[in-house]
Each structure stands twice: as C-alpha cells, then as structure tokens.
Specification:
By secondary structure, the chain is an alpha/beta fold. It has a domain of 105 residues: Rossmann fold. The chain contains three helices and eight strands; from the N terminus they run βαβαβββββαβ. The protein has an eight-stranded mixed sheet. The N and C termini lie close together (9 Å). It binds adenosine-5'-triphosphate and magnesium ion. The site of magnesium ion has 5 residues, from α2.
Length: 162
C-alpha cells in the first residue's frame, strides 16, 4: 500500500499520468472514492497521457466510454454510479474488449460482473486537497506499485505498510 497527498488538481493529474506511464500492458483499475473525490480528474489525465486527444466525456449516463489507443489496444472508462444492477454490465458488450486498460469509477456497483482489479486507487477529501491510497490487487499490481513508488514529484505522506 502506498499513500500520496495530492495538494491540488495538478497533483491528481500528475498521479494519473504517472500511473499511465508505469502501467503493465493490461490492467484493471478500480477508482474508489466519494462524489467529487477526483476519480474522473485522474482518469482524464491518464487517458491524455496515453494519447487520447478528443473530448474525454464522463461516462455518467452511458456507463462506459471506449478509446482506441495508439498501441493497438483499447481503454475503457466506466462510471457505474447510475447502474441499476450489476447485470446491466453484460449488455454493454465489453466481453470483446481488447481491454488493455479498464478505469472503473464506482466499481462496487458492478461487483462480480467486473474483471478483478490489478490496482485499487482510493481517493478522499483531505483538507483542501485529496489523499490517494494505492493497493495492489494482483501480482502484476504489486510490481506496478513498486514502479509507482519510485515517483519523485509527488509528496509521499506515509510509508508502505510492512
Ligand atoms: N487534489 C485535488 N485537490 C483539490 N481539488 C481536486 C483535486 N483533484 C481533483 N480536484 C477537484 O475535484 C472536483 C471533482 O473531481 P472529479 O469530477 O474528478 O470527481 P469524481 O470523483 O469523478 O466525482 P464523481 O463521483 O461525481 O464522478 C473537480 O473540481 C476537481 O478539479
Ligand atoms: Mg467522476
């Protein structure tokens, strides 16, 4: 587990870009946090870092937005806040996703219908900024976290738990 203090929106975007640069070829990321915690800000910066240039819409009503990537894969940005039940995910036709990357806001609402997370990002309000707690969900997530911990420009607020 690794924690960061994100003092402003720029810091949230920097974390998104750093996660994009260090991510393994295929990854599933759950973005946890209350309304306004910064999940979409992080996701947008992540997609920009991967070369997505057009509008990055919040998938608030569509549940998912899909972006082809220059690498040949695809990024899926999901926001499950308004999903009726987890079964709705099956109707989105994501099984065929050459899912290089899944960025999932409100993942608890999709529960068992989602692929398991490689990385959990937990964002929360912290004074005028935000805290970010990163936890691996898989072996590839563990290795990824070690790469992220080499980060220099972000202020680390706590040591990884032993
Ligand atoms: N580190 C930060 N410090 C202060 N404000 C921030 C920080 N990161 C993001 N914000 C601001 O928080 C607001 C909400 O961000 P965002 O829309 O990304 O939240 P969200 O978690 O996606 O919310 P929702 O659950 O409603 O989709 C934005 O105005 C954004 O600029
Ligand atoms: Mg959002």
């Amino acid at each position: 587990m690794t924690s960061f203090f994100l003092e402003d929106e720029t810091a949230t975007r920097a974390l998104g870009a750093r996660l994009a640069r260090t991510a393994p070829g295929q990854s599933v990321v759950y973005l946890h946090g209350d309304l306004g915690a910064g999940k979409s800000t992080l996701a947008r910066a992540w997609l920009r870092e991967l070369g997505v240039t057009g509008t990055v819409r919040s998938p608030t009503y569509t549940l998912v937005e899909r972006y082809p990537l220059a690498t040949g894969g695809e990024a899926l940005h999901l926001d499950l806040y308004r999903i009726g039940d987890a079964g709705e995910l099956e109707f989105l036709g994501l099984d065929d996703a050459r899912g290089a990357l899944w960025l999932v806001e409100w993942p608890d609402r999709g529960a068992a219908a989602l692929p398991p997370a490689d990385l959990h990002v937990r964002l929360a309000l912290d004074g005028e900024g935000r805290s970010a707690v990163l936890a691996a969900g898989s072996g590839s997530g563990e290795a990824w976290l070690r790469r992220v911990e080499e980060v220099g420009e972000l202020h680390r607020i706590s040591e990884p738990n032993p």
